Amino acid sequence: MPTSPATSPSQSSSTLAPTGTSAAPAILVAPYATISVKNHIPVTLELAKPNFNQWEPFFSSLCGKFGLLSHVDGTAKANPTDPAWAIADSYVRGWLLGSAGPDVLGLAAAPNQTARELWVAIKRLFEANKAPRAIFLGHEFHSMTQGDSSINDYAQRMKATADALRDVGRTITDSELVLNFLRGLNPRFAGTADNIADSHPLSDFATAREKLVLKEVRLTNEGTVATQTAFHASCGIACCTISSTTSDGSIADRHGGNNDGSSSGGGQGGGGGRWKKKGRGGSQSRGGHRPPALLVAP
Question: What torsion, rounded to 10 degrees, do the Cα atoms 60, 62, 63, 66 define?
Answer without folding.
Answer: 150
